[in-house]
């Protein structure tokens, strides 16, 4: 039993018959125009992101899901700075794959819809669900490309989506399961299987103390979970001496706020306060699988921020790796404390650039909402590169 997902575009005036993709048009000819006929009588023109399911049209496919792709050649949205064509494909294919999964169809072929990479990303992103701890799990779906158009782009899209899903998995896992040690172990296991150009160092508390990372350690000391500095090296460049790009990610695997404790409402979401670490580790794993020709280093200071008799207190003064002292006015501002030492350590590699990712402050969400990411930079050249590539990956930013 196998499913098939096919795409259709909305006409410019959003009325009249939908415009089929090449794959959908070819399939319709194989079934003597029945798909077009059924689509026409099943309701109004299929809107963007909506789906319709048909059965019994073809002996090879038990279920056909037709998905709405919106207007063809929508282009880059100048206000959001994202490629609407790619995003429409991702969203539509994701919706179609979820329909197939709900039907408990074990395998599905996916229309490339003119962009096989975006289709592959949508398929795997749509099927993701953190259900590791559930007794009843949704049935797995084997996702394949329909036809041979865009095979290499499809494979690339699967790698991109797997990387994003890994970050989602790390962030969604409960904090008692995703401890600093467990996080580091998972990343190490993933990197071992994807490239021999990767070296992983799981730095323990003794090493961190030897590095005099007092700022990082001051946050970690409130928890019974030991801290870890996860250090990942990927050498993809043919020139081993080429300066690396260093990525630093905040890795607070649970943030209670410490002595300056957070309100209990929605505190469970603070299991994802290691989103920066999850993102940069997943990015390096993806780069290694894609065999990108560059050198990268990932640094993630991992620990919990908990209240206890050993925890930082408001007014305490701690000393960072570079010898600077820091007065802690609010223990819920722990992100900058762990990152300060990691960023200081990052400079020892003489990098081309340092990129820091962190769920650093809720004020950013207040200012920008969920539709954009705040960016602060001292390099306009680096920012311009990030801004340009974000239109393809659909990561939206507000720069400063």
TrEMBL record:
Annotated GO biological process: proteolysis
Keywords: Aminopeptidase, Hydrolase, Protease
EC number annotated for this UniProt entry: 3.4.13.23
InterPro entries, per database record: Leucine_aapep/pepB, Macro_dom-like, Peptidase_M17_C, Peptidase_M17_N
Residue intervals of the Cytosol aminopeptidase domain: 330-337
Domain of life: Eukaryota
One MF annotation (Gene Ontology) recorded for this entry: manganese ion binding
GO CC annotation: cytoplasm
Biological role: Cytosolic metallopeptidase that catalyzes the removal of unsubstituted N-terminal hydrophobic amino acids from various peptides. The presence of Zn(2+) ions is essential for the peptidase activity, and the association with other cofactors can modulate the substrate spectificity of the enzyme. For instance, in the presence of Mn(2+), it displays a specific Cys-Gly hydrolyzing activity of Cys-Gly-S-conjugates. Involved in the metabolism of glutathione and in the degradation of glutathione S-conjugates, which may play a role in the control of the cell redox status.
Family as reported in the entry's similarity comment: Belongs to the peptidase M17 family.
Subunit structure, as described in the record: Homohexamer.
Name used for this protein in its record: Cytosol aminopeptidase
Lineage of producing organism: Eukaryota, Metazoa, Chordata, Craniata, Vertebrata
